[in-house]
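#struct-pred

JT: dropping the chains for the assembly here, can someone run the whole complex?
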Amino acid sequence: MRPVYAVSGGVSKFAKARPDKTFQAVVKEAYDYAIDDIGLSFPQFTEIVDGSVASYFSDHFQRQLMSGIMAQDYLGLCPKPSHRVEGGGATGGLCFQEAWKSVASGSMDVCVAYGFETMSHVETWKGNEFIALASDVSFDYPVGGFYSGYYAMMVTRHMKEFGTTVEQMAHVSVKNYMNAFYNPYAQKHQRLTIQDVRHSPMVAWPLTRLDICVMSDGAAATILCSEEGLARLEKAGAKIAKPLVKITGIGRGTDAMRMADRPHDDYDKFMRAYALPHETANAETQSYYKKLWDKGFRYPGVHSFRAGRMAGKQAYKMAKINDPLHEMDFIELHDAYTSSEVQTYEDMGLCRYGEGGAFAESGKAFVPGVEYGLKLKEKPVCPVNPSGGLIACGHPVGATGLMQAVFAIWQLQGTIAKHFKSPVLQIKNAKRGAIHSHAGTGTYVTATILEREK
Amino acid sequence: MAKNNNDTKREENLEGTILFNVPFPKKLDAASLKALKEMTAIVKRQPYHVEYIHSYGQDSPFFAGLANKVFIGNRDPESGYTYATPRGADMYSGNETEWVQLPDEGTVHAFTVCHFGSEEFLPDTPFVLALLEFKGANTLFLTRLMGLDPAKASLDWIGMPVKARYLRNSKMKPTDIYFIPAEMKEE
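RK: done, full complex below.
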């Protein structure tokens, strides 16, 4: 595999609705920004780019098949190679990794990954119906037909197993909304308290409206290249931020579409197949897990995302990360729900299974220097969703994973102040970060590690 | 769908007026053509209806069972690994599974109360959604729970014994079976 660099990105402003433009034109906003940021003109970049990968989740939202080629066409990229990627909420993360593959394999030297979703084309509750069609239409959709309901079931089990509280989950919402306050691309700009989150209308017990991300229209684009591609871009006059941002780890996992089908594995299977190296190497952690299983805990059940654990495990191995919490400077993860951020802390090994709630309220995942109005016991260690995440930035599904990539690129380039018009969210001296994209009830999950070159 | 008295927004819906024309410059010149760039977008209603012919395929006997008030699942013939939600092939051996009768009583593994839902299910709200465990089954079953007060959701519901009820007239849907607390008397 060849080294792959993520050299630029762009994000359209995420909004409840963008009736002012068609989806292709919204994609072009993000695409143009990414090209402009490296100082090239549209025709110059068109000349150099080898191809693309398109990312969008639902054909239903637009009632338009093959939207990918319509974006490709609008961006003037025809007749260059392209394909569409789809994997539910993880579509953007999958797209970024497909672009990485195109470059790492030698198939392309410069590849652009763009993604979008236009969820405003139907009303909110019809939109929920479309999303719920991403559950088994024979057995799940006719019974529940509501993703917030599925996630709420998972978290009631998490609460029962581990004692996780709704206030711990609300810390995630307060954090992510507060971070987004300094991110001009975010859909939501509100300062919240724990009480605000809990007193918000109940959607699916115990998740309130402020525990759940919103639907959005939006687009994002990133430019990836090989060393040869970099040379071509620079020869054409591109000004690429240095040190470069390199993709050093790729991981993916999957799980059964129906939550009901997921295994309830024993301790030995967990330690053999799913535990992270820093967990298997630690006798105290082994003892902690042994006690969990002795009390009746089984893995992954419906409280944990096996796909997320596998994605993290693979990506960490490739990037040679042994202690995720202390060896990464930030993570942009898929917080469609406050509960899923808590669950993902555990899957990604920032804490042990069962400790996600305590981790959420500890302060370790908060951004240094931001005032949250909370009494946090510990200092930030690895900020999670410094951008505001899906909860506050919005979740135009096909764009979301790429939005995370763009924000990660800017963090590692040290250019957050330039793009956000505020330095508040810049993680000082950020050297390594992860992006995590998640589909369904944990069906497809991707984890990608990006690093600033030394 | 306004569900709360504190809501500050009026409910949005697709009702509207049919327009057959909209304002446009009567005379086209450079200025009026340029001004078109400053106009807001035309947003219109675009209905799309479709009926599918959906086959339950190898899972069909499950629905036939529900219509006859029998709850069945699948089992790997070698390992005995049992699926409470039908599955034609075992995920470990790859074997074709066989049908097996499941008990009409189980316990709540996880649940929620949906106060909102997809458009299709909004009229049902609030409803209790639950994943159930069954003795002898290795996987769970998603169902609706009746007979519980949606306003009194509690983690204590997890572990609660429940028993099956069936619709008198099948709709050929997984909701032909639903559950109520085991201690509750049938109406």
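JT: nice. Chain B touches chain A through 52 residues (CB under 8 Å). The beta strands of chain B are 72-75, 82-83, 98-101, 105-114, 127-133, 141-145, 161-166, 177-181.
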